[in-house]
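About this split. The held-out portion is used to measure sequence recovery: a designer receives only the structure tokens and must propose an amino acid at every position. Recovery is the fraction of positions where the proposal matches the reference. Here is one held-out target exactly as it appears in the evaluation file.
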């Protein structure tokens, strides 16, 4: 899986709503891709804050927004699968 594919199913994966094959593929990608692994952590942090009925950390929300915007840029440039998956974003 590439970053764009993972981004499309990440929330469902974190909510336990993906099939077993997709879950394994996402988990493997998250282990190998520092950028997506960090974004998964941001999603978890925001979800946890919302579950506690607290305001999510502004930095986490900003990071999530930047990640989403980067994915949109890569998608519109037609380069969804050729990004450096080991660099931090």
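Reference sequence for scoring:
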């Amino acid at each position: 899986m590439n970053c764009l594919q993972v981004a499309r199913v990440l929330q469902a994966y974190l909510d336990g709503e993906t099939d077993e094959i997709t879950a394994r593929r996402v988990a493997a990608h998250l282990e190998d891709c520092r950028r997506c692994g960090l974004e998964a952590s941001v999603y978890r942090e925001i979800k946890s804050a919302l579950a506690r009925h607290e305001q999510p950390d502004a930095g986490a929300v900003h990071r999530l927004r930047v990640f989403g915007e980067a994915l949109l840029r890569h998608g519109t440039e037609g380069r969804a699968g050729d990004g450096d998956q080991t660099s931090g974003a």
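Annotator remark: The two ends are 18 Å apart (CA to CA).
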